[in-house]
Design brief:
The chain is globular and about 45 Å long. The chain is built from nine helices and four strands. The longest helix is centred in the middle third of the chain and has 22 residues. It has 210 residues and is of the alpha+beta class. Helix 1 packs antiparallel against helix 7 and helix 7 crosses helix 8. It starts with a strand and ends in an 11-residue tail after the last helix. It binds glutathione. Glutathione binds next to helix 1, helix 3 and helix 5. The site of glutathione has 16 residues, from helix 1, helix 3 and helix 5.
Length: 210
């Protein structure tokens, strides 16, 4: 299998963590997003959205969208599961993951920031946008975990929620959001990063890191 990604991509980071948690080895193919390599004809033939990640299976099938890839991994390699068994808790884990993947990440993403620059916003305002989107979104995530036991987001083992949280906290820091306001998120992040599956997936440890 090949994972098309980029060291700094939060969505690819989610998939790297998920692959490591399942113990699945893949070949990593890097596409330099700042150089626009994701828009090369050869990559658009793999993912018409021009986004990473994409997972190319050994039979040539291509899976896109990090949460769909992670869902496929969980169905194909059931242990350890990414979702709890209780239906209400599953819904809560999914809601937390979607709060990050649908409501925070896309609004502060490279493509959106580029559009803001093209519309004439100066660099300071663009970075403030990204910091605010992260700070406001993560403030809601902190409240979502208020009554959940730790140390992970939802209990004693990592779930899809932690897989999404760790990369997003990285983005939030990169854009200058004050994450110290979120002690429960930081507790889950620390528990996650202590696991080799999360540690190995860190952007700075990837071969394409700059
Ligand atoms: N919803 C998608 C988001 C993918 C995405 O936005 N990827 C970013 C990197 S984190 C990207 O490829 N950006 C390139 C661009 O915007 O041109 C997923 O979860 O896979």
């Amino acid at each position: 299998m090949k994972l098309h990604g980029y060291f700094r991509s939060g969505a690819a980071y989610r998939v790297r963590i998920a692959l490591n948690l399942k113990g699945v080895e893949v070949e990593h193919v890097s596409h330099h997003l700042r150089k626009g390599e994701q828009r090369a004809e050869s990559y658009l033939a793999i993912n018409p959205q021009g986004l990473v990640p994409a997972l190319e299976l050994d039979d040539g099938t291509v899976l896109t969208q990090s949460l769909a890839i992670i869902g496929w991994l969980d169905e194909t390699y059931p242990e350890p599961p990414f979702l709890p068994t209780d239906p209400v808790l599953r819904a809560k884990v999914r809601a937390f993951a979607l709060a990050i993947a649908c409501d925070i990440h896309p609004v502060q993403n490279l493509g959106v920031l580029k559009r803001l620059r093209r519309l004439g916003l100066d660099e300071e305002t663009v970075l403030q946008w990204a910091a605010d989107v992260n700070a406001d979104g993560l403030a809601a995530c902190e409240v979502m975990l208020r009554n959940q036991e730790g140390p992970f987001c939802f209990g004693a083992a990592p779930t899809l929620a932690d897989v999404c949280l760790v990369p997003q906290l990285g983005n939030a820091r990169r854009y200058g959001a004050d994450v110290q306001r979120f002690p429960r998120l930081l507790e889950a992040e620390a528990a996650s990063k202590a696991l080799p599956a999360f540690a190995k997936a860190a952007p700075e440890l990837q071969p394409d890191a700059e």
